[in-house]
Design a protein that fits this description.
Blueprint (H helix, E strand, L loop, with lengths): L1 H67 L2 E7 L1 H15 L4 E7 L5 H7 L5 E6 H11 L3 E9 L3 E4 L13 E5 L2 H13 L4 E2 L12 E3 L5 E5 L13 E4 L1 H6 L4 H4 E4 L5 H5 L2 E6 L6 H10 L2 H11 L4 E2 L2
Parallel strand pairs: 1-2, 1-3, 6-9, 6-10
Antiparallel strand pairs: 3-12, 4-12, 4-13, 5-10, 5-11, 7-8
Helix pairs in contact: 2-9, 2-10
Length: 312
Protein backbone atom coordinates (compact mmCIF):
# COMPACT_ATOMS: atom_id res chain seq x y z
CA UNK A 1 0.00 0.00 0.00
CA UNK A 2 2.68 2.43 1.00
CA UNK A 3 4.79 1.48 -1.99
CA UNK A 4 1.92 2.17 -4.39
CA UNK A 5 1.35 5.62 -2.92
CA UNK A 6 5.02 6.42 -3.10
CA UNK A 7 5.27 5.35 -6.77
CA UNK A 8 2.22 7.43 -7.64
CA UNK A 9 3.75 10.55 -6.05
CA UNK A 10 7.02 10.01 -7.89
CA UNK A 11 5.17 9.65 -11.22
CA UNK A 12 3.29 12.91 -10.63
CA UNK A 13 6.51 14.76 -9.81
CA UNK A 14 8.25 13.47 -12.96
CA UNK A 15 5.29 14.50 -15.10
CA UNK A 16 5.37 18.01 -13.67
CA UNK A 17 9.11 18.29 -14.31
CA UNK A 18 8.69 17.21 -17.93
CA UNK A 19 5.86 19.70 -18.52
CA UNK A 20 7.92 22.54 -17.06
CA UNK A 21 10.81 21.66 -19.33
CA UNK A 22 8.62 21.76 -22.45
CA UNK A 23 7.17 25.17 -21.51
CA UNK A 24 10.64 26.62 -21.03
CA UNK A 25 11.78 25.27 -24.36
CA UNK A 26 8.74 26.83 -26.03
CA UNK A 27 9.44 30.21 -24.55
CA UNK A 28 13.11 30.05 -25.57
CA UNK A 29 12.06 29.17 -29.11
CA UNK A 30 9.73 32.16 -29.26
CA UNK A 31 12.45 34.47 -27.90
CA UNK A 32 14.91 33.18 -30.48
CA UNK A 33 12.42 33.87 -33.28
CA UNK A 34 11.74 37.40 -31.98
CA UNK A 35 15.44 38.13 -31.75
CA UNK A 36 15.98 36.79 -35.25
CA UNK A 37 13.13 38.95 -36.63
CA UNK A 38 14.44 42.04 -34.79
CA UNK A 39 17.91 41.37 -36.12
CA UNK A 40 16.54 40.99 -39.64
CA UNK A 41 14.51 44.21 -39.32
CA UNK A 42 17.56 46.11 -38.03
CA UNK A 43 19.63 44.85 -40.95
CA UNK A 44 16.94 45.93 -43.41
CA UNK A 45 16.68 49.36 -41.80
CA UNK A 46 20.44 49.79 -41.81
CA UNK A 47 20.58 48.80 -45.47
CA UNK A 48 17.77 51.27 -46.27
CA UNK A 49 19.50 54.07 -44.40
CA UNK A 50 22.75 53.22 -46.10
CA UNK A 51 21.10 53.32 -49.51
CA UNK A 52 19.40 56.62 -48.67
CA UNK A 53 22.71 58.11 -47.52
CA UNK A 54 24.45 56.88 -50.62
CA UNK A 55 21.71 58.36 -52.79
CA UNK A 56 21.99 61.70 -51.00
CA UNK A 57 25.75 61.66 -51.39
CA UNK A 58 25.34 60.81 -55.04
CA UNK A 59 22.94 63.74 -55.44
CA UNK A 60 25.46 66.05 -53.79
CA UNK A 61 28.22 64.73 -55.99
CA UNK A 62 26.03 65.34 -59.04
CA UNK A 63 25.27 68.88 -57.88
CA UNK A 64 28.93 69.59 -57.29
CA UNK A 65 29.82 67.98 -60.55
CA UNK A 66 27.45 70.20 -62.53
CA UNK A 67 28.89 73.31 -60.85
CA UNK A 68 32.43 72.19 -61.47
CA UNK A 69 31.66 71.71 -65.15
CA UNK A 70 31.40 75.51 -65.57
CA UNK A 71 34.57 77.29 -66.66
CA UNK A 72 35.56 79.89 -64.06
CA UNK A 73 36.55 83.36 -65.26
CA UNK A 74 38.43 85.29 -62.59
CA UNK A 75 38.01 89.03 -63.12
CA UNK A 76 39.02 92.10 -61.13
CA UNK A 77 36.79 95.16 -60.79
CA UNK A 78 36.10 98.22 -58.70
CA UNK A 79 32.88 97.96 -56.66
CA UNK A 80 30.50 100.31 -58.47
CA UNK A 81 29.35 100.15 -61.13
CA UNK A 82 31.76 97.54 -62.49
CA UNK A 83 31.37 94.72 -59.94
CA UNK A 84 27.62 95.27 -59.85
CA UNK A 85 27.40 94.93 -63.63
CA UNK A 86 29.55 91.80 -63.52
CA UNK A 87 27.31 90.16 -60.90
CA UNK A 88 24.37 90.65 -63.22
CA UNK A 89 26.39 89.28 -66.14
CA UNK A 90 27.27 86.23 -64.04
CA UNK A 91 23.60 85.21 -63.91
CA UNK A 92 23.59 84.96 -67.70
CA UNK A 93 27.03 83.39 -68.03
CA UNK A 94 26.08 80.52 -65.73
CA UNK A 95 23.54 79.40 -68.31
CA UNK A 96 26.29 79.33 -70.94
CA UNK A 97 28.74 77.15 -69.00
CA UNK A 98 30.78 79.89 -67.32
CA UNK A 99 31.00 81.27 -63.80
CA UNK A 100 32.49 84.62 -62.85
CA UNK A 101 34.74 84.94 -59.82
CA UNK A 102 34.64 88.70 -59.24
CA UNK A 103 37.53 90.08 -57.17
CA UNK A 104 36.92 93.64 -55.98
CA UNK A 105 39.67 96.25 -55.75
CA UNK A 106 39.64 99.78 -54.35
CA UNK A 107 42.77 100.92 -56.19
CA UNK A 108 43.68 101.21 -59.88
CA UNK A 109 47.09 99.52 -59.74
CA UNK A 110 46.62 96.00 -58.39
CA UNK A 111 43.93 94.91 -60.90
CA UNK A 112 46.37 95.47 -63.76
CA UNK A 113 49.31 93.87 -61.96
CA UNK A 114 47.18 90.81 -61.18
CA UNK A 115 46.15 90.38 -64.84
CA UNK A 116 49.72 90.83 -66.03
CA UNK A 117 50.94 88.22 -63.51
CA UNK A 118 48.25 85.72 -64.50
CA UNK A 119 46.39 85.88 -61.19
CA UNK A 120 43.32 87.24 -62.98
CA UNK A 121 41.95 86.42 -66.41
CA UNK A 122 40.72 89.97 -67.01
CA UNK A 123 39.74 93.22 -65.36
CA UNK A 124 37.04 95.83 -65.83
CA UNK A 125 37.50 99.25 -64.24
CA UNK A 126 39.55 101.60 -66.44
CA UNK A 127 39.49 103.61 -69.67
CA UNK A 128 41.94 103.28 -72.56
CA UNK A 129 44.13 106.34 -71.81
CA UNK A 130 44.76 105.05 -68.28
CA UNK A 131 45.56 101.56 -69.59
CA UNK A 132 48.00 102.97 -72.14
CA UNK A 133 49.73 105.11 -69.52
CA UNK A 134 49.92 102.15 -67.12
CA UNK A 135 51.54 99.89 -69.73
CA UNK A 136 54.10 102.57 -70.52
CA UNK A 137 54.92 103.31 -66.91
CA UNK A 138 54.89 99.75 -65.50
CA UNK A 139 56.13 97.82 -68.54
CA UNK A 140 53.03 95.62 -68.56
CA UNK A 141 51.52 94.07 -71.69
CA UNK A 142 47.77 94.48 -71.32
CA UNK A 143 45.26 95.08 -74.10
CA UNK A 144 41.66 96.24 -74.27
CA UNK A 145 39.23 93.81 -75.90
CA UNK A 146 35.93 95.73 -75.54
CA UNK A 147 34.50 99.09 -74.50
CA UNK A 148 31.48 98.49 -72.25
CA UNK A 149 30.25 101.80 -70.85
CA UNK A 150 31.14 105.38 -70.07
CA UNK A 151 30.28 107.67 -67.17
CA UNK A 152 29.33 110.97 -68.81
CA UNK A 153 30.50 114.43 -67.91
CA UNK A 154 27.62 116.81 -67.40
CA UNK A 155 27.04 120.55 -67.25
CA UNK A 156 25.11 121.50 -64.11
CA UNK A 157 23.37 124.69 -63.10
CA UNK A 158 24.85 126.92 -60.45
CA UNK A 159 23.60 130.49 -60.22
CA UNK A 160 22.22 130.27 -63.77
CA UNK A 161 19.38 127.83 -64.41
CA UNK A 162 19.96 127.07 -68.10
CA UNK A 163 22.51 127.43 -70.88
CA UNK A 164 20.23 129.83 -72.75
CA UNK A 165 20.26 132.20 -69.78
CA UNK A 166 24.05 132.50 -69.60
CA UNK A 167 25.07 136.15 -69.66
CA UNK A 168 28.22 137.72 -71.01
CA UNK A 169 31.11 137.03 -68.63
CA UNK A 170 29.37 134.13 -66.85
CA UNK A 171 31.59 131.90 -64.71
CA UNK A 172 32.15 128.24 -65.60
CA UNK A 173 33.91 125.74 -63.31
CA UNK A 174 35.95 122.96 -64.97
CA UNK A 175 38.35 120.33 -63.56
CA UNK A 176 41.95 121.51 -63.24
CA UNK A 177 43.70 118.27 -64.30
CA UNK A 178 44.64 117.88 -67.95
CA UNK A 179 42.56 114.82 -68.84
CA UNK A 180 39.34 115.96 -67.21
CA UNK A 181 39.76 119.60 -68.23
CA UNK A 182 40.03 118.63 -71.89
CA UNK A 183 36.89 116.55 -71.60
CA UNK A 184 35.03 119.44 -69.97
CA UNK A 185 36.14 121.90 -72.65
CA UNK A 186 35.09 119.50 -75.40
CA UNK A 187 31.62 119.32 -73.83
CA UNK A 188 31.39 123.12 -73.70
CA UNK A 189 32.43 123.21 -77.36
CA UNK A 190 29.77 120.62 -78.26
CA UNK A 191 27.16 122.96 -76.74
CA UNK A 192 28.41 125.88 -78.84
CA UNK A 193 29.68 127.86 -75.85
CA UNK A 194 33.34 127.96 -76.95
CA UNK A 195 35.52 126.79 -79.83
CA UNK A 196 38.87 125.03 -79.47
CA UNK A 197 41.91 124.94 -81.71
CA UNK A 198 41.62 122.12 -84.24
CA UNK A 199 44.55 120.12 -82.89
CA UNK A 200 43.70 120.55 -79.19
CA UNK A 201 41.78 117.30 -78.78
CA UNK A 202 42.14 115.43 -75.51
CA UNK A 203 45.02 117.61 -74.36
CA UNK A 204 43.05 120.84 -74.56
CA UNK A 205 43.45 123.50 -71.87
CA UNK A 206 41.96 126.97 -71.48
CA UNK A 207 44.87 128.23 -73.60
CA UNK A 208 43.43 126.29 -76.56
CA UNK A 209 40.16 128.24 -76.60
CA UNK A 210 40.09 130.01 -79.97
CA UNK A 211 36.58 131.49 -79.74
CA UNK A 212 34.60 132.55 -76.66
CA UNK A 213 31.56 134.54 -77.86
CA UNK A 214 30.07 135.03 -74.37
CA UNK A 215 33.44 135.84 -72.80
CA UNK A 216 32.92 133.04 -70.33
CA UNK A 217 35.27 133.07 -67.36
CA UNK A 218 36.67 129.55 -67.08
CA UNK A 219 37.59 128.74 -63.49
CA UNK A 220 39.79 125.66 -62.93
CA UNK A 221 38.97 123.75 -59.74
CA UNK A 222 40.02 120.35 -58.39
CA UNK A 223 37.48 117.93 -59.89
CA UNK A 224 36.18 116.51 -56.60
CA UNK A 225 35.52 120.01 -55.23
CA UNK A 226 33.44 121.32 -58.13
CA UNK A 227 30.06 120.03 -56.85
CA UNK A 228 30.66 121.99 -53.65
CA UNK A 229 31.33 125.15 -55.66
CA UNK A 230 28.09 125.18 -57.66
CA UNK A 231 26.63 128.04 -55.66
CA UNK A 232 29.66 130.21 -56.51
CA UNK A 233 29.58 129.83 -60.32
CA UNK A 234 26.98 130.12 -63.06
CA UNK A 235 27.49 126.59 -64.39
CA UNK A 236 29.94 123.76 -63.77
CA UNK A 237 31.20 120.75 -65.70
CA UNK A 238 31.33 117.76 -63.35
CA UNK A 239 32.71 114.22 -63.68
CA UNK A 240 30.03 111.53 -63.63
CA UNK A 241 31.27 109.86 -60.46
CA UNK A 242 31.52 113.13 -58.53
CA UNK A 243 28.04 114.11 -59.68
CA UNK A 244 26.67 110.82 -58.32
CA UNK A 245 28.47 111.33 -55.00
CA UNK A 246 26.95 114.81 -54.75
CA UNK A 247 23.46 113.40 -55.22
CA UNK A 248 23.04 114.84 -58.71
CA UNK A 249 20.98 112.80 -61.16
CA UNK A 250 22.53 112.95 -64.61
CA UNK A 251 19.28 112.35 -66.47
CA UNK A 252 17.32 114.80 -64.32
CA UNK A 253 19.76 117.52 -63.24
CA UNK A 254 22.32 117.88 -66.04
CA UNK A 255 21.78 120.73 -68.50
CA UNK A 256 23.83 118.78 -71.06
CA UNK A 257 25.93 115.61 -71.14
CA UNK A 258 28.47 113.96 -73.41
CA UNK A 259 26.95 112.12 -76.36
CA UNK A 260 27.67 108.41 -76.64
CA UNK A 261 29.59 109.02 -79.88
CA UNK A 262 31.57 112.00 -78.57
CA UNK A 263 35.35 111.85 -78.42
CA UNK A 264 35.16 112.00 -74.64
CA UNK A 265 32.74 109.09 -74.35
CA UNK A 266 34.47 106.82 -76.85
CA UNK A 267 37.94 107.62 -75.54
CA UNK A 268 37.08 107.35 -71.88
CA UNK A 269 34.75 104.40 -72.16
CA UNK A 270 35.51 101.73 -69.57
CA UNK A 271 37.11 98.63 -71.04
CA UNK A 272 37.64 94.95 -70.36
CA UNK A 273 41.39 94.30 -70.38
CA UNK A 274 43.40 91.07 -70.65
CA UNK A 275 47.03 90.14 -71.02
CA UNK A 276 48.17 90.26 -74.62
CA UNK A 277 47.74 86.84 -76.23
CA UNK A 278 44.50 86.05 -74.41
CA UNK A 279 42.24 88.10 -76.67
CA UNK A 280 40.84 85.01 -78.42
CA UNK A 281 40.16 82.98 -75.28
CA UNK A 282 36.66 81.48 -75.63
CA UNK A 283 35.68 82.27 -72.04
CA UNK A 284 36.71 85.91 -72.46
CA UNK A 285 34.75 86.12 -75.70
CA UNK A 286 31.68 84.79 -73.90
CA UNK A 287 32.13 87.39 -71.17
CA UNK A 288 32.30 90.25 -73.67
CA UNK A 289 29.28 88.93 -75.55
CA UNK A 290 27.20 89.01 -72.37
CA UNK A 291 28.46 92.45 -71.29
CA UNK A 292 27.43 93.75 -74.71
CA UNK A 293 24.03 92.05 -74.59
CA UNK A 294 20.71 93.89 -74.57
CA UNK A 295 19.94 92.45 -71.14
CA UNK A 296 23.03 94.05 -69.60
CA UNK A 297 22.41 97.33 -71.41
CA UNK A 298 18.90 97.40 -69.96
CA UNK A 299 20.26 96.63 -66.49
CA UNK A 300 22.72 99.54 -66.75
CA UNK A 301 20.09 101.98 -67.98
CA UNK A 302 17.50 100.94 -65.40
CA UNK A 303 19.95 100.87 -62.50
CA UNK A 304 22.05 103.99 -63.06
CA UNK A 305 19.56 106.28 -64.82
CA UNK A 306 22.05 108.00 -67.10
CA UNK A 307 25.01 108.09 -64.71
CA UNK A 308 26.41 105.05 -66.52
CA UNK A 309 25.76 104.67 -70.25
CA UNK A 310 26.30 101.43 -72.22
CA UNK A 311 28.29 101.72 -75.44
CA UNK A 312 27.75 99.78 -78.65
Amino acid sequence: MNKKILLTIISIILSLVLLAGCATAGREGKNDSSEERASENFAVNQEGNSNSTNENNADKENDNGSSEENTVIKIGATPAPHAEILEKANEILKTKGYTLDVVEFTDYVQPNIAVNDGELDANYFQHQPYLDAFNEEKGTDLVSIAIIHYEPFGIYAGKTASLDELKDGATVAVPNDTTNEARALLLLEAQGLIKLKEDAGLKATVNDISENPKNLEIIEIEAAQIPHSLQDVDIAVINGNYAIEAGLKVAKDALATEDADSIGATTYGNVVAVKKGNEDNEAIKALVEVLKSEEIKKFINDTYEGAVVPLE
